[in-house]
Design goal:
The protein is an alpha+beta fold. It is about 25% helix and about 35% strand. It has two helices and five strands; from the N terminus they run βααββββ. Strands 1-5-4-3-2 form a five-stranded mixed sheet. It is globular. It starts with a strand and ends with a strand.
Amino acid sequence: MAFHIEVDSQAVDQIRALPQHALPLLAEAIAVVELAPWNGRPYVDAKPDGALRQLLFGDGVGIITYLVLDEQRRVDVLDVLWLP
């Protein structure tokens, strides 16, 4: 069962600023997060089971930071970074 994706307003602004060619790559990454959010690496290495996760996309040029809310079957996308 897929998780519901919520995108923080800050992340919405960051997504709007992405280059056009990054959008399909981001869409693929969001699809992964929706189906398997725990596949992202922990945001804090010392907390490998932490709910705050990151997923690289676009050959490591992009990073999505998100919070997994298991009980609600929801993922909150907090930050989307693209390194030019």
